[in-house]
TrEMBL record:
SMART domains: Aldolase_II (SM01007)
EC class name: lyase
Catalytic site positions: E162 (proton donor/acceptor)
Compositional bias of kind Low complexity: 7-19
Protein name per the record: Methylthioribulose-1-phosphate dehydratase
This protein's pathway: Amino-acid biosynthesis; L-methionine biosynthesis via salvage pathway; L-methionine from S-methyl-5-thio-alpha-D-ribose 1-phosphate: step 2/6
Entry-linked InterPro entries: Aldolase_II/adducin_N, Aldolase_II/adducin_N_sf, MethylthioRu-1-P_deHdtase_MtnB, Salvage_MtnB_euk
Swiss-Prot/TrEMBL keywords: Amino-acid biosynthesis, Cytoplasm, Lyase, Metal-binding, Methionine biosynthesis, Zinc
Residues holding Zn(2+): H132, H134, H219
Protein family according to the UniProt entry: Belongs to the aldolase class II family. MtnB subfamily.
Taxonomic source organism: Sordaria brevicollis
Record keyword Transcription present: no
Length: 267
């Protein structure tokens, strides 16, 4: 889930509460972040990714970061429910990072504990969008890894599957992975409070600089991309692969195979 923040978090608005910078979430453009987040979360709810107020989505537009709130039914979310903050204005010291200042804070909600994990994707990978789902396929994959001694419990790996082409080669690299490439997604352990996952997510990003996602054991997955289109594409592709991996495991099929490339006979 993405529960409310701890009581130490500051959610001060930089404008009078009577105004609350509502202009930041008011637009007729369907591609405006404040309109896209509710639209995307409604789609994710229908996929079963964000049920029971769990999961979330955040979009960065230059220096502004738009975030879904805590405790909202994702399929009912409105643009007026969205939080906004300035990325460059956030504290960088780990001891002060909970003291976040928001440019816009909807009075009826609280900011999500997912916020520092979304910010990690924006600051460490210059991502334009980060999606967090509670997909049961993602959870099942982490349980399979946990309970299978022959597998590395902290790394999901799969190759020789067409859908792998939906993933970029890595931050700053051109092009996507190929059919024969191996997709690797690190797994971190869950914590009682979501914001406490931040340091472990950042460590996984450092250890696997080419990854666009991090699995959280018994919890879900965080996926990010250069923009909304790429993040959504990779999130959908990853969920497909997680479901496939679970069903392959049930059939006794390996996730990693050694297949000789098939080359055309005619040029």
């Amino acid at each position: 889930m993405c529960p409310p923040p701890s009581t130490t978090e500051v959610t001060t608005s930089t404008s009078p509460s009577t105004e609350n910078n509502d202009h930041l979430v008011t637009s007729s453009d369907p591609n405006h972040p404040a309109n896209l987040i509710p639209s995307l979360c409604a789609k994710f709810w229908h996929l079963g990714w964000v049920t029971g107020t769990g999961g979330g989505c955040s979009i960065r537009s230059d220096d502004l970061v738009y975030l879904a709130p805590s405790g909202v039914q994702k399929e009912l979310m409105k643009p007026s429910d969205i939080y906004v903050l300035s990325l460059s204005s956030q504290p960088t010291d780990p001891e002060e990072r909970k003291q976040r200042v928001y440019l816009r804070s909807p009075p009826q909600y609280k900011p999500s504990q997912c916020t520092p994990l979304f910010l990690a994707a924006f600051t460490k990978r210059n991502a334009g969008c980060c999606i967090h789902t509670h997909s049961h396929w993602a959870v099942l994959v982490t349980l399979i890894l946990e309970s299978t001694p022959s597998l590395n419990s902290k790394l999901f790996e799969i190759n020789n599957i067409e859908q792998i082409k939906g993933f970029g080669k890595g931050h700053g690299k051109v092009g996507n992975l190929g059919y024969h490439d191996t997709l690797r997604i690190p797994v971190i352990e869950n914590t009682a409070h979501e914001e406490d996952l931040t340091e472990f997510l950042e460590e996984a990003m450092d250890q696997y600089p080419d990854t666009y996602a991090v699995l959280v054991r018994r919890h879900g997955v965080y996926v990010w991309g250069d923009n909304v289109h790429k993040a959504k594409t990779m999130c959908e592709s990853l969920d497909y692969l997680f479901q496939l991996a679970v069903e392959m495991k049930q059939l006794g099929l390996p996730w990693i195979t050694d297949i000789e490339p098939t080359l055309p006979t005619r040029k």
